[in-house]
Each structure stands twice: as structure tokens, then as C-alpha cells.
């Protein structure tokens, strides 16, 4: 629908398709949002902007030449709901943030990321996910 304001400029009152898709994503369950976001890029990291362990994980991934999608939960509209899902995924044995997904699968937190890097399994995992080409 087109509306003309007082100055004669036409204004569209219909939401663009991308805005509608964004609203639909906000209306989905937190579990579905984590699944969708976790599969959106070869490497996805859920983080908090002031978290030192999140910074360590980012530096490692960027240092390896990986460009992860980083979702800062303290700046995300539904960050609290997503964080609750990540607490469930992490379980009692590990810190929930950072939460790293590689190839659409939950890898774990900074401890798992570092362990994979030290034992030599991280690079093949990143290559398999399409995050590294060398």
C-alpha cells in the first residue's frame, strides 16, 4: 500500500520481505533460533562482548584465518533466551560461553576449542566445515 504524506512523498506501508523474515525469526523458539544461527555459517560463535574467554576464542579463530559469525548475546534482542539454551547445551561440565558451532554442530566452549587446537583436530574440522581452504 502506498501512502502520500503532506509533502507529497510516497511512503510504502508494507514491510520489506527481509524485515518480515527478521520478525519471523524473532518469533521462533530460542531452540530454533540457536539451530538456525548455528547453521548460518561454517563457524558461529555465541559470545558476550566483555567476556575474556570469548576474546581468547575469537583471537584463536581469527589467528587461524577463520572468519566466524560472532553473535554478541548482550547486544542481541533475545540474548537472554539464547543464553538459556546454550546453558542447557553446555551442561554442568563446561562454561556456556563462548559457545562454538562448527559445520552446524555444537563443538563446545573455549576448553574444547583449545583442546582440539592442541591435539591437532581443529584444522581438519575447520577444513571439513568449509571455514579453511588451505
UniProtKB/TrEMBL annotation:
Superkingdom per UniProt: Eukaryota
Taxonomic placement: Eukaryota, Viridiplantae, Streptophyta, Embryophyta, Tracheophyta
Family to which the UniProt record says this protein belongs: Belongs to the glutaredoxin family. CC-type subfamily.
A Gene Ontology cellular-component term: cytoplasm
InterPro entries: GlrX-like_pln_2 (IPR011905), Glutaredoxin (IPR002109), Thioredoxin-like_sf (IPR036249)
Subcellular location: Cytoplasm
Protein name (Swiss-Prot/TrEMBL): Glutaredoxin-C9
Keywords tagged on the record: Cytoplasm, Redox-active center
Pfam families listed in its UniProt record: Glutaredoxin
Keyword flag Transmembrane: no
Keyword Cytoplasm: yes
Domain Glutaredoxin: 43-106
Main location: cytoplasm
Coiled-coil spans in chain: none
Name of the gene: LOC107407356
